[in-house]
Amino acid sequence: MKNLFLVLSLCLACSSYSQDANVRKLMKLAEKGDTQAQIELADAYFNGKGVKRSFQDAVTWLQKAAEAGDAQSQYQLATCYLEGKGVSKSDEAAVQWLEKAASAGIPAAQRQLALCYRDGRGVAQSNEKYFTWIEKNADNEKPEVQLDLAKAYYNADGVKKDISKARLWAEKAAKKGNAEAEYLLAWWNYQNNPNSNDALQSLLKIAEKGNENAQYTIAQAYLKGNGFQRSEETGIDWLEKSAAKGNSDAQYTLANYYFYGNSPLIGKSYKKAIDYYTKAAAKGNAAAQRQLSVCLYNGVGGTQSFRDAFNWISRSLNSESTPVAENNLGVCYATGNGTRTSAPQAIELFQKAADAGDAMAMYNLGAILLEEGQLDVKKSFEYLEKAAAKNNLLALKKLGDLYYSGKYTNQSEERAFEYYNKAAQQVPTPQNETLDYFFQQQDEAYSDVFYILSQCYANGKGVKKSVKDAEVWAIKAAELSNKNAFEWLLKKVDANDPKDPASPAVILTVADGLFYGKGSKKNNDKAFALYEKLAKQENTAAQKRLVEFYLDNKNPKKDLEKGIALQEKIAKKGDTETQLSLGKYYLTLVPDTTTPTTQRVQPKPQTATNTSTTTQPRRGEIAMQHRSAIKADVHPSEPKKGMKYINETKGVFWLQKAAEQNNADAQNELGNYYDAKQDFAQAINHYQKAAQRNLPAGQYNLGNCYYNGTGAERSYDRAADLYKQAAREGYAAAQYRLGHCYYHGEGIAQSDNRAADWFEQACDNGEQRGCEMLRVVTTKK
Predict the structure, then answer these.
(1) Model's pTM, two decimal places?
(2) Of 125, 133, 475, 640, whose CA is between 20 and 30 Å from 549?
(3) Residue partners of 505: CB distance under 8 A and separation at least 6
(4) Domain 25-140 of CATH type 1.25.40.10
């Protein structure tokens, strides 16, 4: 054993001695300038071969070799500077050595240098130089890099546009299994020839594999009829698939469908629109970010957040600058909504948007330049006039105010009137229907313009004095709940001046203001007195208001007998609304105390499987046996009292009178009456008339007739079409029925997505069956 240890010790000593001797030899050669020796010595220090490991010493010898022109050493030295290995970390020094090694043809150095240019590491960022260096060895790169090269050549991003090279690199990436490259090749072919069947089929195959971009392209092809027969239904199906995969363009497009409700397949739903805008915005879609910010600022869908609106509009501008977005961000800085107030930043943004031709920005710039600390009258008027020339309501009113008061300009009531008159012709878009601008109280300005015009006519300022015209404009303003206009009209009524009596229209407007609380606090007693005054003059509108007063459950002076008597009087004049109201009243079912109680056999409420629900029919709705329902047992129910109409003869008479004047509601009510009588021919006749006048209830009831084959041959197709028409108008029961048709594929292509969509809208509108079926569809998914 001792001999064995002795032999091993001698072997180790000899080995150590051999390595030390070799290092000493390398040292002598390296000191004499032998590049190879310097390289090997550097390697020895890096790995501790025959010397104590030392990165600093390694770098010293490596640098000598690099300075001598050894390209591999130059690359290794660059790596040391990038990693801070044996030398202070320095991206700049690394790039200098990488340039030398890359120029000498070292592939690894070329790739690393390319990445430095791509990331701006140690050198100014440059896509051009990134692609120049990365292409030299791109055959050996990952498919993602090859795809980047393809995109660069196609879009001329850092390189000269070259479609041939773009296709070359895309094909190489596709051969390595890159799905996006495969899609791009098909997409480029499609762009060159949108009607090419081969290109479309290639895209379709890729879409069917689940590529979200291909799915979006196929959706657009169907929606526009490019290469496929136009089909909004198929297009939306592909949009939904693409959106579910996370394609922001598909999400944004669906959001617009829901916001505007401009597709027969998709009902208007701010809730779903905002949900899709939010998804697309989170993925960086600038258009979605802009429109989401408007929804949040204007409180569309019931949620308002100035802070979130500010954040999203800021993000959209970072991605894509547009005049509308610049204006909206300027509004935040001008008002302090969502951020700190900053007039300089607001002015800068308004200026950019105004110079790009945005009328609202022109107004905002002109307005802010008249504020204290920012005053520039000449420039303000210049931009206000530009905005007014584009019919901007706020600018027209502002100029009217300035000329009317003579502030910052020569007073001119005539010019003021001209601006006010033109402003009155500009109807503002409702706050919850715009996806362009952050709302700036255009509706208030609009009603103010009406009131000011009334005062111009009342006092002969800028126009010939006219009491009649003054009243007309004041009434318009008061109907928009303008408090000043209401008070002016009220003073006129209270004055009771026989020389200047208030017209019936003025009295009615004041009474309405008091009764409904429009521009005033509610005062039923005073309103009632005014209505009675007009009613004695046979003013039909006032008489109808008195009916409301008599029949109001919250009114302590409620008088049903007086209300009905007055309705009879109005109905005889031919007023269709009153005829309808009377008809519905007389056909109200009440307990029949003159007939004995009967005992009926009623079916037990039906139960349903997890695919549908059943309910008892409501008036005007035909009970439907769902395909999934289980047949119910029959058992005796509790005795029920008989029911009768208050006055069947009068009810039918007044409904017919209203129906003869083409009142759609009356036609629908007659349909309900004959439906209950099981006179289905008469029922469907009246439902058809109501449906033709686009009454959702009539469309829905007619749809039920076709669905069940009552009064007409059964047709699921016609039923689904009628449900669709009513559903789009927000009719909850029709939304539920349409969801049911989609769920079972009855009269329409089966679609769980569409079914869920309509069930959700029905649920949101208070239809409990919609909520139940929404849970069923969601569970199924």
Answers:
(1) 0.74
(2) 475
(3) 471, 475
(4) yes
